[in-house]
Automatic annotation (TrEMBL), chains A, B:
The keyword DNA-binding applies. It comes from the Bacteria. It comes from Streptomyces monticola. Residues 24-43 bind DNA. This is TetR/AcrR family transcriptional regulator. Residues 1-61 form the HTH tetR-type domain.
Length: 188, 188
DNA sequence: GTCTATATCAAGATAGAC
DNA sequence: GTCTATCTTGATATAGAC
C-alpha cells in the first residue's frame, strides 16, 4: 500500500476507536508504520490527515446505506434492511462519534463531512418514508422529515446506550422498537 | 463554595464540554481556582474526580427525568413531557457523550454511572409504555422494552445529528417523529 | 489543606540532512 | 520522499515545605 494510503487507513481506525482528541500523530505513525517526516510531507498535520480519513469514512457509510435504500422491496422493507444490517455495535459509528469531539465541532472544515453525511441520510430517509406513505404502508399523518430524522437518530443513540451497557442488546432493542412503530413485520 | 465542591463543579462543566480525554487536570485547576496540591489532596487524580463529577451529573439527570415521569397526565403525556423538556441541545448529554470516550468505557469504575443511568432510564420508559398500553393509549402489539430503549436512544441520537448540523432542528425533528409514532397529539 | 518545585513522558510539530 | 534531531508546551502527577 502507498504511504498516504497507509496513513489514511491507520487514521480511520484510530479516529473510530479513540476519537479525534484521543488520536495522536505518534499513534498514527506507529499504526501505519510511516515515519514523522513522511506524515508531515503528505498531509497538513493531524487535522489535514483526519479530514481525509473522515471524508473517506463518510463516503463509505453513505455508499453502504445507499445499497440498502436502493435495493429491492417496499420503502419500509428497505428502511428495515438498512436498520437491520450487520453492525459492529460496540465500536459505534465512525462518523457519529466524532460529533462529540470538541476540536472537530469547533473547526468548520472538520465538521463539514459529518454535517453532509447526516443531512444526506435524513433527507434520504424522509424520501423513503414519503414513498412508504404513497404505497400505503406508512400512516400519512406522519411528517416524513420528522420520521426520517428519528430513524437516523435512533441508530446513533442506539450506539450510545449499547456502549454504556457494554452490550449490543440495547441497540438491538432500540431498532426493534423503531421498526415496530413503523409497522414493519419481520419473520419472527 | 468548599474546595472539593468547586473541583467537582468545574470538572462537570469540562467533561460536558470536552469529554474525559479532552479534560486536563490543569484545565480543572484553572476553572475551579483550586491549586494542584489541593486537587490531589481531595481526589484520587483525574479519574477519581471525574467519577465524582459523573455520579453527580447522572443523579441530576435521573432526578430531572423522574420529575417528568412522576408528573401529572397519562403515561404518554408524561413521556412527551420528558421528551419535550427544555434542553441545551447543542451541548448534548453530559453523560451520554462520555460513552464515546475510550478511557471511560475501558475502565469499569468510570463506565458504571453511565450504565446505571441508561439502564434505569430504559426500564422506566418501558414501564411507562406498558402503562400506556394498559390505558389503551399505546398499541398493545408493541414490545415495551423495545419502545423504551428506542425512546432513550432517540434523545441521544438527536444530540448527535444536531451537533453535526450545529443546529437544534434535527434534534427537534427526531423527537417530533418519535412522538408522532407514539400517537401523541400536541396542541399544534 | 495548600503551595511551589520538580519529574517524566507525550503532543504536535519543524529543520535540515540524505 | 524519508529520516533523525530538536523544540515547545502540556498532561499527569509526586515531594516536601508551610
Amino acid at each position: 500500500m502507498a504511504t498516504p494510503e497507509r496513513l489514511i487507513e491507520a487514521t480511520r481506525e484510530l479516529l473510530w476507536e479513540r476519537g479525534y482528541v484521543g488520536t495522536s500523530p505518534k499513534a498514527i505513525q506507529e499504526r501505519s508504520g510511516v515515519g514523522v517526516g513522511s506524515m508531515y510531507h503528505h498531509f497538513d498535520g493531524k487535522a489535514g490527515l483526519a479530514l481525509a480519513a473522515m471524508q473517506r469514512s463518510a463516503q463509505e457509510l453513505r455508499d453502504a446505506a445507499e445499497a440498502h435504500f436502493a435495493g429491492p422491496g417496499t420503502a419500509v422493507q428497505r428502511i428495515a434492511s438498512y436498520l437491520l444490517r450487520e453492525r459492529d455495535v460496540l465500536r459505534g459509528c465512525p462518523i457519529g462519534r466524532l460529533t462529540m469531539d470538541f476540536d472537530v465541532i469547533e473547526e468548520a472544515r472538520l465538521r463539514a463531512p459529518l454535517d453532509e453525511l447526516f443531512a444526506w441520510l435524513r433527507a434520504r430517509l424522509a424520501d423513503l418514508v414519503a414513498e412508504g406513505q404513497t404505497d400505503g404502508d406508512i400512516d400519512t399523518r406522519l411528517d416524513p422529515q420528522a420520521v426520517g430524522a428519528m430513524i437516523a437518530a435512533v441508530v446513533q443513540g442506539g450506539y450510545v446506550v449499547a456502549r454504556s451497557a457494554e452490550s449490543a442488546e440495547p441497540f438491538e432493542a432500540s431498532i426493534r422498537g423503531a421498526l415496530q412503530l413503523l409497522g414493519y413485520e419481520d419473520g419472527a
